[in-house]
Structure formats: C-alpha cells, structure tokens
Amino acid sequence: MTSTPNFHENRPSRRLLVTGGAGFIGSNFVRYWCTRYPGDRVVVLDALTYAGNRQNLASLVGKENFRFVQGNICDRSLVETLLEEEQIDTVVHFAAESHVDRSILGPSAFIQTNVVGTFTLLEAFRIHWQTLFSVKGGNPQGVFIHVSTDEVYGTLTPRDPAFTEKTPYAPNSPYSASKAGSDHLARAYYHTYGIPTIVTNCSNNYGPYHFPEKLIPLMCINMLLGKPLPVYGDGENIRDWLYVEDHCRALDLVIHRGTPGATYNIGGNNEVKNIDLVRMLCRLMDELAPDLPMRPCEKLIAFVKDRPGHDRRYAIDATKIKTQLGWTPSVTVEEGLRQTVLWYLTHQDWWRPLLSEEYRAYYQQVYGN
Ligand code: NAD
Ligand code: DAU
Q1: If you measure from the C-alpha of residue 215 to the centroid of ligand 2, how many angstroms do you get, rounded to a whole number?
Q2: pLDDT tens string for the chain (369 positions)?
Q3: Centroid of ligand 1 to alpha carbon of 56 (angstroms)
Q4: Which domain holds residue 193?
Q5: Cis status of the peptide bond prior to 296, with omega within 30 of 0
Q6: Which residue's alpha carbon is at the smallest distance from atom 10 of ligand 2?
C-alpha cells in the first residue's frame, strides 16, 4: 500500500480554488483535502451542471474553512473576484464537460467549458499571480493544477507500450480534443508568462459519487433496476482503472512537490477489457445484493452499437510520478470494484434522484430505450 502523503509538519496553510468541486473527482478531492488539511481554505467554484451535485459536498457545509460558490468558470469577473477576495494561491481545475458520449451528441459545451473556461481561468490567474505575488517576490507554494486525461494521447493497440508524458497528442473525440486544447493552454502559460502550471493526465477513475452515465455506475444501477447492461461493440476495449482516492493522493503529491511546467501521468496499473470488467461487476452484485430483479446479472449483458471513434485501449506508464514523487496506486481493481458496488448498493438515495427527465432523455438518445 502507498502511504498517504504527510505534509502536516511545518506546512504553511494554503488557499485553494477548486473548480468542478461538486462533480465526481472534484468532490472526492475536496473531501480528501478538507480532512487531511483542515487548516487550509477551500473554495469550490462549480456551475452545477447536470453532473454537479450539492449532495456530493453535503458533509462539508457549515465547516469554517469551506465555501461553495455556484458559478461558471467562463465568468471572468466572478473568477477574478474569487481569486482576489480569497487570496487564492492554489487552483485545482477539475471543471469540465467530461463525458465522451455527450461530446459526440453535442460538442459545443465542451469547447465552451473545457477550452474557453480553462483559458478564462488561466488568464484571471495570470493577472492575479502577477499583481499579487510576483511584485511581492513570488509565492513559492502557488500552483495551477490542470486536471486532464489520458485520452489526449489517442488510442493504443494491445501491443503498444503504455502512454508516457512524451507520447504525442492524438485526441480522437470532441471531448479529448477539447482537453488537449486546454492542456496546451496550461503549458503555454508556464512557458510564456512563467505562471506555475502543472498538467496531470490520468486514466479512468471510479469510486463513490460517480455520475450514472459512466460505465461502472451505469452498470451497477442497471443491475439494481434489472435493466440491460449495454456493452459497446465487441467489449474488447481496454481501460486502465484508477480508484479515485488513489488519484487524490497523487494530486496531493503533485500540488506539494510537482515541478512547475511539468506534466505527470497518473494511472491505476489496472488494465481490464470492458467485458471482463462488466462480468466482474455482475459477480460482485450477485454476491452482495440481497434482492435483484434478475439473477445472475450476466443475463442482462447486451452488446450494442459501438461508440463512434471508440478508442481501443488506454494504458498509463506512471514511472515519472513514481520515481520523482513516490506515488503508486494502492487499490487493486478487485478491491476497488467491491467497495464501489457496495457504495451504490447502500447509497440509492444518492443515485435515484439523478435518474431525472434530463438523464432519461440522454439515455434514450444514446441507447434508444
Ligand atoms: P464530472 O462531470 O463528474 O464533474 C464535472 C464538474 O464540473 C461538475 O460538478 C460540473 O457541474 C462542473 N462544471 C462543468 N462545467 C462547468 C463550468 N462551465 N463552470 C463551472 N463548473 C462546471 O467530471 P469528473 O469525472 O469528476 O472529471 C473531473 C475532471 O477530471 C475533468 O476535467 C475531466 O476531464 C478529468 N478527468 C476525468 C476522468 C474520469 O475518469 N472521470 C479521467 C481523467 C480526467
Ligand atoms: O480515460 C479517462 C477518461 O475516462 C476521462 O477523461 C473521461 O472524462 C471519463 O468519462 C472516461 O472516459 P471513457 O469514455 O473511457 O469512460 P466511460 O465510462 O464512458 O466508458 C468506459 C468504457 O466503457 C469505454 O470503452 C466505453 C465503454 N462503455 C461505456 C458506457 C457508458 C460501454 O461499453 N457501455 C456504456 O454504456
């Protein structure tokens, strides 16, 4: 097991702006951070799109060092105000349109939030940084973390080596193209203006509070509802699964010890074919759920039309973050999936309200039923 980083000793407190902190990874990160570093100020900026959920942060409401602001990262004056009035030194930027299928149905929001929104944040942070910190001799702990994805590297065949930080960008979906654009902007702000940006590119996260449109929560919920389990194409596509808490630990290290201007790949070292993953989930649900509409769950598996431009395989080579910052993932896919299935079983009050009219309309468009 990797030990959790410990930066408590002699550590000056930080003031964080966390964008997208009401989403899946963002909310896991905010809970992690507030528990680990209770002396830090954490301000969440989130537009509460369909993917943002106040419930994800309910345990922090009323805590002295925590503030939630509903707002859009494209709103320059709001971002400037927050940076200034909260004297922010650390931005952790999660806010994004994050779902590939939605980017295929309608790319425009992806360009707006992922490209224009990231640009807006970077530009506001540049002015904030230059006026408030550079003139006072700098702020050694200030950093802008841009949380990105392995999808910017495109697709691998089963025989290719895993993605390294040197793999050329080759995004294949509107989502990954928009993330690639924002990664380049973050990089350019370091090289051109000396703003301390760091880009992280991680693999598929999973765990609690994952929105039901994504593979793992969708499968868990459909099993509990007795609905078909739609597997795209032949189910042989491979993803490298990263437990969300491992990701939070990696970001903790990058924030404290990462090199400005650098990029870090973060991966779970857990490559699994989609069909094998779905079968694992079925076995876990058969074992753990007391009553199910259909048992065994494997009977619900349905191969459906493939996602257009579906990347075949993602795999992360995380050697750099391991050797430079001492991070390795600690949760195996078997452990992580068991915890995740249990979470969806015991948190029906969290996910049932998310199956809204909007969700049903989206589901109908993608799956046709
Ligand atoms: P998510 O869709 O669960 O959450 C996104 C959050 O951003 C939501 O709370 C939403 O309300 C907010 N948001 C969207 N547009 C906004 C805007 N214009 N202004 C302010 N807030 C806005 O996403 P996630 O899965 O938690 O992903 C977080 C980040 O990590 C994204 O940048 C994503 O590209 C990246 N990432 C995710 C994964 C993954 O497996 N989930 C893997 C690699 C990288
Ligand atoms: O790799 C990192 C990326 O992982 C992140 O950048 C994205 O934000 C995140 O959404 C995720 O993208 P994927 O497209 O890999 O995740 P998704 O859960 O949508 O799909 C995982 C795999 O499962 C993929 O090969 C498509 C397949 N799939 C997905 C759904 C929703 C199915 O077979 N059936 C489904 O119903």
Answers
A1: 6
A2: 445 666 665 788 999 999 999 999 999 999 999 999 999 999 999 999 999 999 999 999 999 999 999 999 999 999 999 999 999 999 999 999 999 999 999 999 999 999 999 999 999 999 999 887 665 566 778 999 999 999 999 999 999 999 999 999 999 999 999 999 999 999 999 999 999 999 999 999 999 999 999 999 999 999 999 999 999 999 999 999 999 999 999 999 999 999 999 999 999 999 999 999 999 999 999 999 989 999 999 999 999 999 999 999 999 999 999 999 999 999 999 999 999 999 999 999 999 999 999 999 999 999 997
A3: 13
A4: 15-207+241-269+309-331
A5: yes
A6: 99
- 124 found inside a domain: yes
Nearest CA to ligand 1 atom 5: 23
* Residue 366, domain member (yes or no): no
The number of beta carbons lying within 10 Å of the beta carbon of residue 191 is 10
Contact 335, 282 (CB under 8 A): no
**Distance from residue 98's CA to the centre of ligand 1 (Å):** 5
Using DSSP, state whether 270 is helix, strand or coil: coil
Query: Residue 107: which CATH number?
Result: 3.40.50.720
**Best probe residue, ligand 1, of 94, 214, 251 (max atoms within 8 Å of C-beta):** 94
Q: Is 51 in the pocket of ligand 1 (CB under 6 A)?
A: yes
Number of domains in the chain: 1
Structural domain contains residue 165: yes
Q: Is the residue at 8 inside a domain?
A: no
What's the 3-state SS for 134-159? HHHCCCCCCEEEEEEEHHHHCCCCCC
* 175 is an active site residue: yes
Q: Is residue 160 flagged as an active site residue?
A: no
Q: Which residues line ligand 2 (CB under 6 A)?
A: 98-100, 149-151, 203-204, 214-215, 218, 230-232, 237, 239, 274, 307, 314
Q: Count CA within 13 A, CB hemisphere, residue 214.
A: 20
Closest CA to 162 of 274, 77, 238: 238
